[in-house]
Design brief:
The complex is a heterodimer. Chain A is mainly alpha-helical. Chain A has one domain (2-222). In chain A, 82% of the residues lie in helices and 0% in strands. Chain A has nine helices and no strands. In chain A, helix 1 crosses helix 6 (94-122), helix 3 (47-70) packs antiparallel against helix 6 (94-122) and helix 7 (131-156) runs parallel beside helix 9 (197-222). The two termini of chain A are 27 Å apart. Chain B folds into two domains: 19-83 and 157-234, P-loop containing nucleotide triphosphate hydrolases (Rossmann fold, 3-Layer(aba) Sandwich); 92-155, no CATH class. Chain B has six helices and eleven strands. In chain B, strands 7-8-9-4-10-11 form a six-stranded mixed β-sheet, with helices on both faces. In chain B, helix 2 (98-108) packs across helix 3 (114-124). The radius of gyration of chain B is 17 Å and the shape is globular. Classes of the chains: A mainly alpha, B alpha/beta. The A-B interface holds A 2, 5-6, 9-10, 13, 16-17, 20-21, 79-82, 84-91, 223-224 and B 54, 57-61, 78, 82-83, 85, 87, 89-96, 100, 104-105, 107-110, 150.
């Protein structure tokens, strides 16, 4: 019970501070917006070409945007040494990770869903008939990105070249998520859309494995 | 400040080493601190004061040795051996108000009736009227008051102060000394790291000098007590 109540309290704090400052959401939305608009000029978005290229482009934009979002996750806990205050207060340090990854997943999912209509219009991709499947892929992939990214953010925040270290660690680790979610999205954007269960299964397994690893070893990532 | 309701807890450091890579920050530190003692740690920068206090707070795991909390604590009261920690970093969120900060940490520590406890503490540290202001708008002295209120939320038996007067003006130091005096007189065990002699160091009942991670002097008597504090900065 302590774990859940501590997580709920910390998640409330994460949401309150973000919706008060809107730093992460603004940065991420602007970044993805620029990528989507810029690439829409570089090729003729006929339906076939879009179906082929757009899924990779979409997930690449989400992945890079997530590295911007995850960077300050633990970095801002160092400003006033609030991480120490959290560690002194919670009964299970996993609550700190759980709250942060839940907040990151929510922010990432919100950003993706906000930008999906714009993407659909600019790249001439019909999304309405597969929207529920897209939401599932967005959720599973965002959760995976947030779990791994939150853990890596805790590691990189204690390093000297912290701003460089997170993308360096995160991008190779998240390549499997990028490949799987691109494949699933490509299948959903097909002329005859279908659900690629293999990819969805892979995303779910990735999430479970990394969440379990974080639960087992997360405490050590917070130690000085 | 309200006297603690339930406990008398001390600390025992047994043969503690702490290594950061090649640097040995603490070397075979063995100390027994009785319940209710007010101990001042003195020493040059890098002598191991902060590391020792962070070991006591269980924020840093010793590379070798053990830490224990001997004394009486009420059954089923886990907060009794969860020390309150005040450092020169305030350990509160600038983007939250004083009240939001205290409520956050009170709820995390599962303090009973958190709203009442926060209200009482805000009044005790003189911030009732600024409860709704963001901490980033506070002066250094006001931030330190929030930090002390945060450390006292769960009525800890042990309080750790790591150079708490850093950056405070003389008025702030006087207020802090008064607050620590009240806490000491309420029977809490207090460990503080300080630089040199000050209004705050005079509250100590025992002085310990650290040098290169080792305890080099330890006294409870007047003249030696003073020499430990002054020699530390000589």
């Amino acid at each position: 019970m302590s774990l859940l109540s501590n997580t709920a309290v910390l998640l409330g704090k994460e949401l309150r501070t973000e919706f008060r400052s809107r730093e992460l959401l603004t940065t991420t939305i602007v970044f993805i917006l620029i990528v989507i608009v810029l690439f829409s000029f570089t090729f003729d978005p006929t339906s076939d070409e879009s179906r082929r290229l757009a899924p990779g482009l979409l997930w690449l934009a989400f992945l890079f945007a997530s590295s911007l979002m995850l960077q300050p996750c633990f970095l801002r806990e160092q400003h006033n040494d609030t991480l120490s205050a959290l560690r002194l207060s919670v009964s299970d340090p996993f609550a700190i990770f759980l709250a942060k990854l839940a907040a990151n997943t929510l922010f990432l999912l919100l950003t993706e869903l906000l930008l999906l209509p714009l993407f659909a219009v600019m790249y001439n991709v019909p999304v309405m008939q597969v929207l529920h499947w897209l939401v599932l892929v967005f959720f599973l992939a965002s959760l995976g990105i947030s779990i791994a990214g939150t853990a890596l953010s805790a590691i990189s925040a204690q390093a000297r070249m912290r701003e460089l270290l997170l993308p360096l660690l995160m991008l190779p680790l998240l390549t499997p998520i990028l490949v799987a979610s691109t494949e699933v999205t490509k299948a959903l954007f097909d002329r005859a859309p279908y659900v690629q269960w293999k990819g969805i299964g892979f995303l779910a397994v990735f999430d479970v494995v990394f969440l379990t690893a974080l639960w087992l070893f997360g405490e050590y990532l917070l130690e000085e | 400040m309200k006297p603690p309701a339930f406990f008398r807890v001390g600390l025992r450091f047994e043969n503690i080493d702490k290594r950061y890579g090649a640097l040995l920050a603490l070397r075979k530190v063995s100390l027994g601190i009785a319940p209710g003692e007010c101990v001042v740690f003195a020493g040059r920068n890098g002598s191991g004061k902060t590391t020792l206090l962070r070991v006591a707070a269980r924020l840093v795991r010793p590379s070798r040795g053990a830490l224990s909390f001997p004394g009486e604590s009420r059954d089923g009261q886990p907060n009794a051996v969860r020390p309150g920690f005040v450092a020169h970093a305030t350990m509160v969120y600038d983007e939250l108000t004083a009240e939001e900060n205290l409520l956050l940490f009170a709820r995390l520590q599962e303090v009973a009736k958190p709203e009442n406890r926060v209200e009482a503490l805000l009044w005790e540290v003189g911030l009732s009227e600024r409860r709704g202001s963001l901490v980033r708008t506070f002066s250094r002295g006001m931030r330190q008051r929030v930090a002390i209120a945060r450390a006292l939320l769960h009525e800890p038996a042990i309080l750790l102060f790591d150079e708490p007067a850093t950056g405070l003006d003389p008025q702030g130091v006087t207020w802090l000394a008064g607050a620590i005096r009240q806490l000491r007189d309420s029977g809490r065990t207090i460990l503080m790291s300080l630089h040199g002699e000050s209004e705050i160091s005079s509250l100590g009942t025992r002085a310990i000098r650290l040098d290169a991670g080792s305890v080099v002097a330890d006294t409870r008597t007047g003249a030696t007590f003073r020499s430990i504090l002054t020699f530390a900065d000589a």
